[in-house]
Specification:
By secondary structure, the chain is mainly alpha-helical. The protein has 11 helices and 6 strands.
Length: 376
């Protein structure tokens, strides 16, 4: 016989709090902070990984400032590495926004210092500030934080030029400033759009969680409803079966043969309804992950004889011949109730689809497969 097993239903544990908009906003802020920590960590990692290779560029373009630039790059790279290490600490979680600002300003200060030594406003090193401003757009900051940090970066570049440089080529000066300001505006817009997109996705997730929890509650109510209905129907069925069983056990011959036959029909159909109620209860248990197999040694011949008594009247209604064949000594270990449902369902379908006047045979025997003896 086949062994039937059930897999426990894994209950969904929702975390959606819909009591107030404040709870939703708080959850969004928590997710934003987690994203900020992750992205700051990535940017810091890129910083301490990519800054040192630019030393080769310094050797080729500004060899006379090599030692100074080497010191600046290694110092900034060390700061990036320390921030990367701190990103796994509780301290970083508390000051994640400030750490992101330090990352952006430390790299910008390094680049601005280099610009002072290699041409001032004419230096092409200003492109490094564009890179920093674009990288800021990846951080889930508020517009205010992004704007303040961007202005500070621009000040690092502009103020020393206005104080120390004599601007002779206004085309280059305006060109470089135009690209810096434009890059800052692009980062601001990108940050705003990113915020709006994250908020929409977050609200969609909240709505999905809420809908799932509502469906779960509806499913629980449905299961409870069917459970209550099943219990309520079992009671009158039991009350119907009790007097019918008593009348069929009458040993004094008060019943006519046709009355006995009719009572058997009532009994068998009431038993079928009772079994259907039990099956419905089992389905509820399966859905809740609480159905357990109750294995026992069963004498198969007696088991099939009980099924034959229950199904014979159904077969007679279509003038079908229902026969059972089983070895006298055949025994097997299975859950009697569950296998009974399977066998009765098979016989019911056979009765349903067999033409009137046909025959249905049920056989149970021992078969040998690959040197292993099994019951079928």
């Amino acid at each position: 016989m086949a062994h039937i097993s059930t897999v426990p239903h894994q209950e969904f544990k929702g975390t959606c709090e819909t009591s107030s908009p404040a709870n939703i906003q708080e959850r969004f802020q928590v997710e934003t902070q987690e994203l900020l920590i992750k992205r700051t960590r990535v940017i810091a990692c890129l910083g301490f990984s990519l800054i040192p290779p630019f030393i080769l560029l310094d050797i080729l373009t500004t060899p006379r400032f090599f030692k100074l630039f080497l010191t600046l790059r290694l110092t900034t790279s060390t700061i990036m590495f320390l921030i990367f290490c701190l990103s796994y600490s509780t301290f970083f979680k508390k000051f994640s926004k400030q750490m992101g600002v330090i990352v952006a300003l430390s790299v910008s200060l390094m680049i601005a210092t280099m610009i002072r030594f290699v041409g001032g406003y004419e230096s092409s090193y200003y492109a490094g500030l564009n890179t920093v401003i674009l990288a800021m757009g990846l951080l889930p900051w508020k517009i205010k934080d992004m704007l303040i940090t961007g202005i500070l970066i621009y000040v690092f570049y502009l103020i020393p030029i206005l104080i120390s440089d004599k601007i002779t080529d206004w085309a280059i000066f305006l060109n470089n400033n135009f690209f810096l300001v434009t890059t800052l505006l692009i980062s601001l817009v990108s940050s705003r759009l990113g915020y709006q997109q994250r908020w929409r996705e977050f609200i969609a997730k909240i709505n999905l969680e809420t809908a799932y929890l509502k469906l779960q509650e509806l499913d629980r109510l449905k299961t409870q409803f069917f459970g209550n209905i099943s219990h309520e129907l079992r009671t009158p069925l039991t009350l119907i079966l009790a007097p019918v069983e008593m009348m069929l056990k009458d040993k004094e011959g008060h019943l006519e043969p046709h009355q006995t036959k009719n009572l058997n029909v009532v009994r068998n159909n009431a038993l079928r309804l009772l079994k259907l109620m039990n099956q419905l209860l089992d389905l509820i248990k399966i859905d809740a992950g609480k159905l357990e197999l109750r294995l026992s040694q069963v004498k198969v011949r007696d088991f099939l004889r009980e099924i034959e008594d229950s199904m014979s009247s159904l077969a007679e209604q279509k003038n079908l011949k229902l026969s059972f064949e089983c070895e006298e000594s055949l025994q097997s270990e299975f859950d009697r109730d569950q296998i009974e449902k399977v066998v009765m369902n098979l016989i019911y379908n056979a009765v349903k689809f067999t033409p009137e006047g046909g025959s249905i045979e049920v056989r149970a025997k021992t078969v040998k497969r690959e040197n292993t003896e099994t019951n079928s």
